[in-house]
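quick q for whoever's on today - can somebody do inverse folding on this one?? i tried earlier but teh output was garbage lol. tokens:
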């Protein structure tokens, strides 16, 4: 499906995957709301609110304003959470919550890219504490995700250190390409959201997956292939082919470098100023 195995005399390549509604069928962050409730991190009202947010997200995607409101809500919600407790809750419930909602088609693509010799990188707006374990579950080589500031007490402060969203995803991909030697003209990218057009534009092989209406229009205008993923399946129920040989340990978002992180904060700050002035 993806061609011959990479010629290792050529520059390295990678496949960049958005996570929510591209690799998994729901919002990764919102999926853990009940687990966070059971762990005492949120109350019942917050569970109901995140359930509604999940419904809106699944019904039609989320535009920039909705994503910004969701970011602000989740940032405020997680203020004061103990990071180690969050990691433990995610680890304990990961297989029960995430394994059943992984798209079979996405898992097959990940296999194909690895067989072809390409790195697989998950690039998600969700928090690193959620995305990194999912990346390991999927056998990804690297993860780029939003990072929250952690205080000296080991708890989230509610502030954002790096926001992996919109243009900042493209900046992270370019930073990784520079550090890892990826030839972006031969790389692949997959996303469902029009907010990821900068990420898709940065590679030679962009794909729209289950696209929202705006991305479908963009993909049609740019002649980008459109893929439909609709078969969530547990990894263990798939053929043994998914049992890939052991791969090097997943590399987390810090690998994108200070330049991408700074770009993310500058872009986020500029958006905040624009919304304040509007």
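ok took a stab at it. sequence:
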């Amino acid at each position: 499906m993806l061609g011959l195995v990479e010629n290792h005399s050529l520059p390295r390549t990678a496949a960049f995957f958005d996570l929510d509604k591209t690799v998994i069928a729901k919002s990764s962050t919102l999926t853990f709301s009940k687990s966070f409730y059971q762990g005492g991190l949120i109350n019942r009202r917050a569970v109901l609110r995140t359930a509604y947010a999940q419904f809106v997200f699944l019904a039609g995607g989320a535009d920039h304003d909705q994503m910004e409101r969701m970011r602000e809500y989740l940032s405020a919600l997680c203020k004061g959470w103990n990071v180690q407790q969050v990691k433990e809750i995610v680890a304990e419930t990961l297989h029960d919550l995430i394994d059943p909602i992984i798209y079979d088609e996405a898992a097959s693509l990940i296999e194909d890219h690895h067989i072809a010799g390409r790195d697989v990188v998950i690039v998600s707006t969700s928090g690193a504490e959620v995305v990194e374990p999912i990346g390991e579950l999927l056998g990804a080589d690297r993860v780029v995700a939003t990072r929250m500031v952690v205080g000296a007490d080991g708890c989230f402060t509610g502030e954002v250190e790096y926001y992996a969203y919109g243009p900042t995803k493209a900046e992270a991909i370019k930073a990784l390409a520079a550090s890892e030697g990826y030839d972006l003209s031969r790389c692949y990218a997959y996303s469902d959201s029009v907010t990821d057009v900068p990420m898709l534009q940065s590679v030679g092989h962009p794909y729209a997956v289950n696209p929202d209406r705006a991305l479908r229009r963009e993909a049609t205008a740019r002649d980008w292939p459109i893929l439909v993923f609709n078969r969530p399946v547990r990894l263990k129920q798939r053929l043994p082919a998914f049992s890939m040989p052991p791969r090097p340990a997943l590399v987390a978002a810090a690998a994108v470098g200070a330049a991408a992180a700074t770009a993310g904060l500058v872009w986020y700050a500029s958006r905040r100023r624009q919304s304040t002035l509007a």
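fwiw The longest strand covers residues 119-127. also The chain has one domain: 14-277. so keep that in mind when u check it
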